[in-house]
């Protein structure tokens, strides 16, 4: 077994990493690794620009992208990255499942994280397996009630085995596995409920005074979402929801660019204003 680093040097490294993370690690990632080889990846990123590109770990399935309030955000997949329209968000939370990070040889499982886009990645090995190989020394190691968590600087490879039957599995088993799995899928469930509620609305669309203020403002010409928000003194979440609703009803058109979203009246929107005697 390799001898550990001298304590003073180890403390220096940990302090440096802590300072880097506190000052501005742009993105944090947690990989929960389950006994069947599936991983649940959770990524959190602050928003500094209207369009945010986030590197992904593995090939995603059941992808959920929400803001700090659990509201879904528009996104597109671009190779191994996700591009998020985050103009109205302060934080982006990405959650997904993947089976492309692990592989098995005999009894030994291996987790391979090849990215260099993250300064640190936390790996939670669910079910308390034994680590039998690691390409780098972990920055920290923490034991939970039914998992072992290692924080490592990527890229790295981690080998592990289950010396006894795993205490949890994504498809069933211990009660804790169900709890962890449900918690990991909460963002996806929130999105599903949001879309279900949206699809079950009354088809008759009623414009209120706020909707009409937005439409009248756009009668002057296309504007950015931030301009509408400031001009009408609307909270950013309210402005975003209203514009999205008007877009879904075909009253406005939204062009998403790297400098922000541009909103303009559609032909239907102009007809509505004309019918109400508000066309300028």
Outline the structure in words:
- This protein has 280 residues and is of the alpha+beta class.
- It has 2 domains: 7-196, Immunoglobulin-like (Sandwich), CATH 2.60.40; 209-275, Winged helix-like DNA-binding domain superfamily/Winged helix DNA-binding domain (Arc Repressor Mutant, subunit A, Orthogonal Bundle), CATH 1.10.10.10.
- The chain has helices at residues 7-24, 175-199, 209-218, 225-231, 236-248, 267-275, and strands at residues 28-33, 39-46, 51-55, 61-66, 75-78, 81-85, 91-98, 102-105, 108-113, 121-126, 130-134, 140-143, 147-152, 156-161, 168-169, 172-173, 223-224, 252-257, 260-265.
- The strands form 5 sheets. A 7-stranded mixed sheet has the order 4-7-2-1-10-13-12, covered by helices on one side. A 4-stranded antiparallel sheet has the order 8-9-14-11, with no helix packed on it. A 3-stranded antiparallel sheet has the order 3-6-5, with no helix packed on it.
- A hairpin with a 3-residue loop joins strand 12 (140-143) and strand 13.
- The radius of gyration is 24 Å and the shape is elongated.
- The chain starts with 6 loop residues before the first helix and ends in a 5-residue tail after the last helix.
- Mean pLDDT is 78; it is low at 1-5, 8-25 and 171-184.
């Amino acid at each position: 077994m390799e001898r550990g680093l001298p304590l003073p040097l180890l403390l220096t490294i940990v302090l440096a990493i802590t300072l880097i993370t506190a000052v501005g690690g742009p993105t944090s990632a947690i990989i929960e690794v389950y006994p069947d080889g599936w991983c649940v990846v959770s990524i959190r990123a602050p928003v500094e620009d209207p369009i945010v590109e986030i590197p992904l770990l593995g090939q995603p399935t059941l992808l959920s992208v929400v803001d700090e309030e659990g509201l879904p955000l528009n996104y597109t997949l671009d190779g191994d990255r996700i591009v998020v329209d985050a103009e109205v968000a302060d934080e982006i939370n990405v959650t997904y499942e993947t089976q492309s990070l692990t592989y098995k040889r005999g009894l030994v499982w291996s987790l391979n994280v090849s990215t260099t886009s993250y300064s640190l990645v936390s790996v939670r090995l669910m079910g308390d397996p034994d680590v039998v190989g690691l390409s780098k020394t972990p920055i920290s190691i923490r034991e939970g009630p039914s998992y072992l968590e290692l924080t490592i600087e990527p890229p790295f490879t981690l080998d592990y085995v289950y010396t006894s039957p795993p205490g949890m599995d994504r498809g069933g088993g211990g009660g804790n596995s169900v709890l962890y799995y449900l918690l990991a899928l909460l963002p996806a469930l929130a999105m599903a409920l949001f879309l279900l509620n949206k699809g079950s609305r009354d088809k008759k669309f009623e414009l209120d005074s706020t909707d009409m203020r937005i439409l009248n403002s756009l009668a002057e010409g296309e504007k950015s979402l931030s301009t509408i928000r400031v001009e009408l003194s609307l909270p950013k979440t309210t402005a975003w929801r209203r514009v999205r609703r008007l877009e879904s009803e075909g009253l406005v058109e939204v062009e998403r660019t790297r400098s922000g979203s541009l909103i303009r009246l559609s032909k239907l929107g102009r007809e509505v204003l004309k019918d109400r005697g508000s066309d300028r």
